[in-house]
Amino acid sequence: MKSHSFICALAATAAFGLMGQALPSTAQAKTLVFCSEGSPEGFNPALYTAGTTFDASSRQVFNRLVEFERGTTKIVPALAESWNVSDDGLTYEFKLRKGVKFQSTKDFTPSRDFNADDVVFSFERQRDKNHAFHKVGGGSYEYFNSMDMPNLLKSVEKVDDQTVRFTLNQPEAPFIANLGMDFASIMSAEYADQMQQAGTPDKVDLNPVGTGPFQLVGYQKDAVIRYKAHPGYWGGKAPIDNLVFAITPDASVRYQKLKAGECHVMPYPNPADLAAMQQDGDLNVMQQEGLNVGYLAFNTEKAPFTDKRVRQALNMAINKDAIIEVVFQGAGKVAKNPIPPTIWSYNEKTQDYPYDPEKAKALLKEAGVTDLKTNLWAMPVQRPYNPNARRMAELIQADWAKVGVEAEIVSFEWGEYLKRSKLGEHETLLLGWTGDNGDPDNFLYVLLGCEAAKDSANRARWCHKPFDDLLVKAKRTADTAERTRLYEQAQTIFKEEAPWVTIAHSVVFKPVRKEVVDFRIDPFGGHVFNGVDLKE
Amino acid sequence: MLRFLLSRIGLLIPTFIGVTLIAFGFIRLIPGDPIEVLAGERGVSPERHAELMAQFGYDRPWWEQYAGFVGNVLQGDLGKSIVTKQPVLDEFLTLFPATIELALCAILFAIIIGLPVGVLAGVKRGSVFDHTVMGISLTGYSMPIFWWGLLLIIFFSGILQWTPVSGRISFLFFFEPVTGFMLIDSLLSGEKGAFKSAVSHLILPAVVLGTIPLAVIARQTRSAMLEVLSEDYVRTARAKGLPPSRVIGLHALRNALIPVVTVIGLQVGVLLAGAILTETIFAWPGVGKWLVDSIARRDYPSVQGGLLLIALVVMLVNLLVDLLYGVINPRIRHVR
Amino acid sequence: MSAEDTAATPETARPPHPLREFWFYFSENKGAVAGLIVVVTLVIVALGADVIAPHPPHEQYRDALLVPPVWQEGGQWKFLLGTDATGRDMLSRLIHGSRFSLMIGSIVVTLALSLGIALGLAAAFFHIVVSSVVMRLMDVILSVPSLLLALVVVAILGPGLINAMIAVSVVYLPHFVRLTRASAMAEMSKDYVTASRVSGAGLLRLMFVSVLPNCMPPLIVQATLGFSSAVLDAAALGFLGMGAQPPTPEWGTMLADAREFILRAWWVVTFPGLAILITVLAFNLMGDGLRDALDPKLKRS
What stretches of B40-127 show up as alpha helix (H) in DSSP? Predict the structure, then answer.
């Protein structure tokens, strides 16, 4: 027992006085601790695509021309006070806000306020391959590319200090929403110039300078990120003084820390812990439906999934309620449309396929399909829209077996999985999508449009002319009411044709401590701390 | 001695070349595509994909890539991470002190307990104490440490709330790293309570990581003691009437230490392997966890560079052990 | 002592048959006998898993999710050790899991042992070039921490049980190669080898008939110990999500799958780990006993 008693002895010494982990009293500076789930890739949101990175950079340090109102998908003015769109939908003119201050860091003290040069710099760096800063930090602007900005943007020009003009190659209704995304964060052109002259252009991305509510103080990889409130913030100084990200990758560990008061807010709790959290008097478990959808796509180019009756039958054979309970542990809602209910134009009237194995069997028989053997791809990683794809696949496998369909579960390494499924090697597969800008186009056209059906994001490889026409028309229309009508129609067609089994929208849970005031869940999955306060 | 040193170093060179080949070759055999992983569901167009592959240099023939890789390595350049776009060497160096700190404390824990317990068990061979120690140490040796870590977390952090769950130091303390070793930095910072906090964070991971080395050291010390105690010179010393404590302390222990030192040296590889699991469980910001993450993200340059650096460390430590062995046991030097 | 007849079948002969002598020393070591009993039990459980397990390992009882073990409040007699998150019986999964652990151990050891003997003998018998190439290669493998190497190999081959076994075999290969080479070189200088060489025995005959049998004792010990390490490493791979894939009831994978329930359902975390510990411990105990019984030096004392 020697070694064990030693452990006890060590632990006992540790217990004396060491556990003064309680949070500092609010009499001094107010410090909010966020137990974040991982290290950011870096601090320039334009270079990366991970939400973790955006939480650490764009959502605290930077602003955009337009932003989403905190806790909603509604576009509001930010660095741009107002804007005009030309009648042909090709020219956008932004009037910029006056008196916006950049942060001062140890490397940089701004000599001027924010102006049009900063906007032009931020976009031209990404757009123009010959821009002096294009290659800095690797030169890959994946989000800018994936939103098709290089083809969409013709030019970004400074009209005067307070006016910027964007010219597009074709009309694109979701463009404004794109400008609210993280990659469109505005950086300081003056800082970039100075750093370039000093021969250290990399510093622009490592030690960010933005106009946002918090400024970066220090970062230790895989350990901690520290911010302090930007005193000259144009929207008024944030209610808290310091913001700390305690990087804690393991969900049960984050919960432990939250319980112990070592942090105030935690993302991505284990569904398994939710019941206990909700009973904890010190915690407030907030929830909201996520801006995502988890689905099962049939490869509609491969028989028998070319037949919509087979697709419908397999829809009916899946017990979605069981999936919600077992896979999501209740942290999800059954999906009937390909877009989540938090997005405008969500069609409430859609009728989902009921769980009905008998009818499914009959329908399969009618389609002349017997002894169907197929494969079912399940991704190897946990995603916001699917906490455990393998477990989900096991349930679906069991459900399908009941209607005489034998499915073999297949999995690949994540990159391989994405690549092979893009090429259509699967018969049925599990995947999902998280929205970027709250526009229905960002779900429907990206995931189900004909353009994406050839070796791209449309994993059902489903190209249905009447459906696609509606989407293209909506893309070219500026009027939201008209667009809503078109998208609603599209959803009805989608349901009838059943290229997917829409499985679930996850419900996002955010456990926060009771002393946290006015934290709002961001529908985009981010964490925004401006406006959050701590009670005495 | 110099000749011995040179011959050992000479042996290292082919091994090192082998390691560069393996690190380079393995990473290219790994299926999957870093660019796809980065893009996720969003995907990336084939043109853009080709462009990025070219940018990372993955479109060139492998021998060209290998030559470039070795050339850069010799200049101390291990490339840049695909994910963070930072130099791999920098990332490794910022994280490595955490791993060393953890490993050193673990081995210290193992030696401080394992050595005396092993000596005692050897001296009192066949006693209840001996049997108990051997039983426990074999259990420790058989321990799946990832499970052991979880159990300790449940008990000490969950139920008793004695130790923090993870991390290296409480967020209350903030100072720029000087040495990278939290125990030292916390002392240097002069902040009250910082050192205590660092210690309390270190205890559980060090115990978990030290468990297997502890078991090995205790067992090895015991059997070395048994062997030495039956040697003639010990019998002579006893016969001369030296007090037992002196016989054991001076004569037996010193000779028994020789194999023990080797075993401790050999534990370095075990420690680094264990660090992968321990760091994963305790969210310890070290290189083990970083490598696992890099493999999952298909961050080729990081895995490649990390593998190389870790192998280098193991090789150097083994060299050191060899040399140390030569110092304490002069007979070895002449054998080669 | 049900194991006695399996190990000590030979009829009484005099002088004492080597196996009998072996059993005499082996049975002196109580720990080793205990280990042997556990191992035999495990083999029986694994072979008879279909009969012994109360439920099929993949059957999901959707109305009985995360039921605690029977002695705890809320437990059911139907599920002695409780159920996991999809309502599968823990006991049945653990019982079926024994198959995988034994299979992993045997296959890894067989692979590493046979390849290790071949390479080791080659290094001992053939030209210096062969020897140094093989031995440097082993040095390279040894210079990368075992689990890290296994992780990389699995990453190359893709996660899965078979690939995990291959990866672990690669990692353990150097131990067998070095051991074979060292004992073969020691044997080669002995008179009987020279005698058989002089009498015109071929190279293969020398290698496999004359020398190899005399190198076996340390290899057998190493194989037993390698068995336990293989089980441990494969479980670690499973824990990191790179080993056997769910729903395979491999213990390490079960543990990884259960990790999110660590605070809510201790049984899904505790039992698979315990099963690994007991199995590994049993093999280590047995390995110790084997070493004592086969090592002539310790026998004397």
Answer: 46-56, 62-74, 88-123
Across the interface, whether the CB atoms of B144 and C148 are under 8 A apart is answered no
- What's the rounded Cα separation, in Å, for the pair A292 and A271? 17
Cross-chain Cβ contact C252/B318 below 8 Å: no
Instruction: Kindly list the distances between the CA atom of residue C63 and the CA atoms of A72, A326, B253, C57, C59, in Å, as whole numbers in the listed order.
Output: 38, 10, 63, 16, 12
Distance from CA of C56 to the nearest CA of A (A): 14
Q: Mind listing the pLDDT tens digit for each residue in C59-115?
A: 888 788 888 898 888 888 889 898 888 788 999 999 999 999 999 999 999 999 999
Round to whole Å and give the CA distance between B75 and B92: 16
User: How do residues A129-160 score in pLDDT, each as one tens digit?
Assistant: 899 999 887 778 888 887 889 989 999 999 99
Which tokens belong to A100? 């916006």
Contact (CB<8Å) A218/B168: no
State how far the Cα of A61 lies from the Cα of A105, in Å rounded to an integer: 12
Q: Which phi and psi angles does A356 have, rounded to 5°?
A: -150, 85
B220: its two tokens: 């090895």
Confidence of residue C15 (pLDDT cuts 50, 70, 90): low
CA distance C85 to B147: 19
pLDDT confidence of residue B1:
64
CA–CA separation, A133 vs B77, rounded Å? Answer: 23
Most A CBs within 10 A among B166, B178, B182, B281, hence the mutation to make, goes to B166
C-alpha neighbours within 13 Å on the C-beta side of residue A130: 0
Rounded to whole angstroms, the Cα distance separating A94 from C111 reads 69
**Whose CA is closest to C259, among A358, A255, A24, A284?**
A255
SS (H, E, C) A318-348: CCHHHHHHHCCCCCEEECCCCCCCCCCCCCC
Please report which residue ranges of B230-252 form alpha helices under DSSP H: 232-239, 244-246
Backbone angles phi, psi at A508, to 5 degrees: -85, 130
User: How many Å separate Cα C152 from the centre of its chain?
Assistant: 21
**Min distance B318 CA to chain A CA atoms (Å):** 28
Rounded CA gap, B297 and A312, in Å?
A: 36
Q: What is the DSSP letter of A156?
A: E
The burial class, CB within 10 Å (0-12 / 13-18 / 19+), for C72 is: exposed
Options 3.30.2380.10, 3.30.43.10, 1.10.8.420, 1.10.3720.10; CATH for C44-298 is: 1.10.3720.10
Does ipTM surpass 0.85 in this model?
no
In this prediction the pTM is 0.79
Q: Which residues contact A470 (CB under 8 A, 6 or more apart)?
A: A486, A487, A489, A490, A493
Look at B274 and C151 and tell me if their CB atoms are within 8 Å: no
Helix (H) or strand (E) holding A162: none
A144's enclosing H/E stretch is helix A142-146
Q: Return d(Cα C27, Cα C35) in angstroms, integer.
A: 11
Q: How many CB atoms lie within 10 A of CB C29?
A: 19
The token pair at A478 is 């500026």
- Report, as an integer, the average pLDDT of B57-72: 82
| Chain C residues within an 8 Å CB radius of A270 | 260-261
Q: What residues in B contact C137, CB-CB < 8 Å?
A: 18
Closest CA to C284 of A225, B300, A269, B139: B139
Instruction: Measure C259 CA to nearest chain A CA, in Å.
Output: 9
Q: Which range is least confidently modeled, A205-219, B138-152, B260-274?
A: B260-274
Residues of C whose CB is below 8 A from A273: 260, 263-264
CA distance B31 to A380: 14
Q: Tell me which of A69 and B192 has the higher pLDDT.
A: A69
